[in-house]
Design brief:
The chain has a 5-stranded mixed sheet with strand order 1-2-5-3-4. It is 56% helix and 17% strand. The chain has one domain: OmpA-like domain (60s Ribosomal Protein L30, Chain: A, 2-Layer Sandwich). The protein is globular and about 80 Å long. A hairpin with a 2-residue loop joins strand 1 (70-73) and strand 2 (76-85). The longest helix has 54 residues, at 13-66. The chain has 6 helices and 5 strands. By secondary structure, the protein is an alpha+beta fold.
């Protein structure tokens, strides 16, 4: 008479050994991955702190005069932000047309940013992104399009001013800068968890710093270029 055998009764020591080995390898991989992420984040924070002072110094007069601040981006350890509130950079209601006050701000700010980004900070900064943000009125598609049009309007006006007042920085600034709209995706809330519409409507200049590796690459390229000249 044949009796069905429980599969567990046939599991061999070899099977158990392979299972334990695979489990150990997975644990080692996880530990190595966590260590890599921790080291990378730590290096990024060090680079941010190292160069934040350089950017702060270069933009000090401008930031102080207009009551702006240079802050770390919580979403990217290598990015610094200048948040321009609506009272400085305004648009006509539900439009992407810049107000007279916005024109005044950009005519002062953009040549200053270009001179810093394409001058003493050129090897420190990787890119500059202009982000437009709206409040919660209207649906997602409408606000996304509106914020994109507004950020593009800021960039176009900025390039016009730079070409007229700081032409030597125009090409560099154009290559480094991009415009994007975030719509109502990153609203700002008050202490009562209500949307603060005035603060939500804003433009953010995001300055992304080069990583240590990127800076080394740039330094090597410049060194090679200098040797060839």
């Amino acid at each position: 008479m044949n009796f069905p055998m429980n599969q567990k009764e046939f599991s061999s020591p070899t099977t158990h050994g392979l299972t334990d080995l695979m489990t150990s390898l997975v644990m080692v991989f996880i530990l190595l991955f966590v260590a890599f992420i921790t080291q990378t984040s730590s290096e990024a924070q060090s680079a941010l702190q190292e160069h934040k002072d350089d950017v702060q110094t270069a933009l000090k007069d401008h930031l102080s005069r207009l009551g702006l601040s240079l802050d770390a981006d919580p979403r990217d350890p290598l990015t610094l932000m200048i948040v321009v509130p609506e009272n400085l950079l305004t648009f006509e209601f539900a439009q992407s047309r810049l107000s007279a006050k916005a024109h005044t701000f950009l005519e002062e700010a953009m040549p200053f940013y270009a001179s810093a980004v394409c001058g003493p900070l050129r090897q420190t900064i990787d890119s500059l992104a202009i982000q437009g943000h709206t409040d919660d009125r209207g649906d997602d598609a409408y606000n996304l399009q509106l914020s994109q049009e507004r950020s593009l309007a800021v960039m176009v006006k900025g390039l016009e001013v730079i070409r007229a007042r700081s032409p030597s920085a125009y090409q560099c600034f154009q290559e480094m800068t991009s415009a994007s709209g975030r719509g109502r995706q990153e609203l700002i809330y008050d202490v009562n968890h209500q949307v603060n519409r005035e603060k939500s409507r804003r433009v953010i200049f995001k300055i992304r710093l080069r990583s240590t590796e990127q800076r080394h690459v740039v330094e090597r390229l410049l060194s090679v270029k200098g040797t060839m000249l």
